[in-house]
C-alpha cells in the first residue's frame, strides 16, 4: 500500500502562527494609538493656526470685535470633529459634534486662539488644549497641555 501524504497544518503549527499574530498585535495597537493622537494634535495645530492670518488682518484694520456683522472680525473658523466649544458668534454655530477654536474677544495685540480637544479626539488627548498666543510685536507662539510624546514640533508645553 502507498502511504498517504500529510495534507494541511498540524495543530502546533497553527498555534505558533496565532501566537506570532498575537505578539505583533500587542506591539502594533499601542503604536497605532500613539500615531493617531499625534496626527490629531498636528491637525488641530494646523486648523487653529490658520486663524492667525485672519486675526492679524482684523487687528491691523482695527476690527477688534469678534462676529460676522459689519465692521466686525470673522476669522472664518469652521467646525472640527476633534474640538469642543468655541465662539458661537464666529461663522455661526458649529454643527453638532464639532467645535471651533476659542478666539479671545475683543481682539488685542496679545490675543489668543485656544483649541480644546474633545468629541472624536483620542482619549489620551481629550480635554487637553492647544493655544496660539500673539505677542505685542505680532509673532505667534504655540503651547499645549498634551503629553510630550504627542506634541508636534514647534509647540511647547
Structural write-up:
With 157 residues, this protein is α+β, with helices and mostly antiparallel strands. It has one domain: Glycoprotein, Type 4 Pilin (2-Layer Sandwich), CATH 3.30.700. 32% of the residues lie in helices and 15% in strands. Strands 1, 2, 3, 4, 5 and 6 form a six-stranded mixed beta sheet that branches. A hairpin with an 8-residue loop joins strand 2 and strand 3.
Shape: elongated
What can be said about the biggest beta sheet? 6 strands, mixed
Termini separation comes to 78 Å
Q: In the CATH hierarchy, what is the class? A: Alpha Beta
Question: Which residue ranges are poorly predicted, with pLDDT under 50 across at least 5 consecutive positions?
Answer: none
Task: Estimate the mean pLDDT confidence.
Answer: 90
What are the secondary-structure elements, in order, as H or E?
HHEEEEEE
Total domain modules:
1
Number of helices: 2
Give me the CATH architecture, please: 2-Layer Sandwich
Radius of gyration (Å): 24 Å
CATH topology: Glycoprotein, Type 4 Pilin
Strand content: 5-15%
For the secondary structure, the number of strands is 6
The CATH superfamily name is: Glycoprotein, Type 4 Pilin
Structural class per helix/strand content? alpha+beta
Q: Helical residue percent?
A: 25-40%
Helix-strand layout with pairing:
Elements: H1 11-49, H2 51-61, E1 83-84, E2 102-103, E3 112-117, E4 129-134, E5 140-144, E6 155-156
Parallel strand pairs: 5-6
Antiparallel strand pairs: 1-3, 2-3, 3-4, 4-5
